Amino acid sequence: MLESGADVITLGNHTWARDEIRGYLAESDRVIRPANVATGLPGRGLAVALAADGTPVAVLNLLGWLFLEVPINPFEVVDRLVEEARRHASVVVVDFHAEATSEKVAMARWLDGRVTAVVGTHTHVQTNDARVQPGGTAAITDAGMTGPHDSVIGVEAALAIRRARTLTPVRLKPAKGDVRIEGVVVECDTVSGRATSIQLLRVPVA
Ligand SMILES: [Fe+2]
After folding, report:
1. In whole angstroms, how far apart are CA 56 and each of 8, 48, 90?
2. Which residues contact 173 (CB under 8 A, 6 or more apart)?
3. One digit per residue, pLDDT tens: the chain, 206 residues?
């Protein structure tokens, strides 16, 4: 994905599902994991990369506390992380990987005026609330899913339905159909870091 042109990749609650990632995360400054995981785990939650025009962009990754098991409340650490990010860049993007719409909206409001964008992830369904808040922070509750939409959030529907109906373990498999790239395009002032617009992106690819 980095070779395809991604500048920074953020992770989420599945970060530690494969142990092999640990060594990679310890070395990488472009692939980051949520900042509020247990102390001592490898990797970092903040990356700074240069945009195509040379503008430094800081990217922060945090996990929500509601319905996800986190050892550290993201609201406990976000202020310090934003201050650190702003020492490196005026443009700061926060990937808030969280389950609850309420928590994601609360984080977007809390950070309004201090970061360029708060982009929600994890729930995989693109929400219809992209907006620039009064303080100049763009926000959306969920950027959506890049993957097969003929599915239950990426999983073969029949398997997800079997699991839901039986409440027994079912080995889930990725679905195949209706692949889309989803996300958002945020425009901003590179000096102040304030967002000027946010637009939904949805591109069918297969
Ligand atoms: Fe997730």
Report:
1. 12, 7, 7
2. 155, 156, 159
3. 999 999 999 999 999 999 999 999 999 999 999 999 999 999 999 999 999 999 999 999 999 999 998 999 999 999 999 999 999 999 999 999 999 999 999 999 999 999 999 999 999 999 999 999 999 999 999 999 999 999 999 999 999 999 999 999 999 999 999 999 999 999 999 999 999 999 999 999 97
Q: How many CA atoms lie less than 13 Å away from 33 in the CB half-sphere?
A: 23
| Residue count of the chain | 206
Q: Please give the model's pTM, rounded to 2 decimal places.
A: 0.96
194 CA from centroid of ligand 1 (Å): 27
To 5 degrees, how large is the angle CA 175–CA 165–CA 158? 20
- As a whole number of angstroms, the distance between CA 158 and CA 152 comes to 9
- Determine contact, residues 193/180, Cβ cutoff 8 Å: no
**DSSP 3-state assignment of 77?**
helix
CA of 98 to the centre of ligand 1 (A): 7
Q: Is 88 marked active-site?
A: no
Q: Report whether 57 contacts 93 (CB < 8 A).
A: yes
Cα 109 to averaged position of ligand 1 atoms, centre (Å): 22
Using the mean position of ligand 1's atoms as its centre, give its distance from the Cα of residue 189 in Å. 30
Structure-token match 């690819």, residue found: 205
Give the span between the Cα atoms of 173 and 163, in whole angstroms: 12
